[in-house]
Amino acid sequence: MQRKTSGGIVAGLDIGSTRTSVVIADVTGEDHRNPGVKILGVGQARTGGIRRELVTDIEATTESVRKAVKEAELMAGVTVEALYTGIAGEHIHAQPSNGVVAVGGEEIAPGDVERVHEVAQAIVVPVDREVFHAIPQEYIVDAQRGIRDPIGMAGTRLEAEVFIVTGSSTAAQNLRKSVSRAGYRVAELVLEPIASSLAVLSEDEKEIGVALVELGGGTTDVAVFHERKIRYLATLPWGGSTLTNDIVKGLSLPYAEATRTKERWGTARADTVDPNETFEVPGPAADQTRQIPRELLAHIMEQRMDEIINLVVDQIERSGFGGKLGGGIVLTGGGASMPGVIELTERIFAGPVRCGIPGNGLGGLVDSVRRPKFATGAGLAIFGARQVLETAGERGGAGKASVDHMIRWMKDWLNDFF
Ligand SMILES: Nc1ncnc2c1ncn2[C@@H]1O[C@H](COP(=O)(O)OP(=O)(O)OP(=O)(O)O)[C@@H](O)[C@H]1O
Ligand SMILES: [Mg+2]
Question: How far is CA 56 from the centre of its chain?
Answer without folding.
Answer: 21
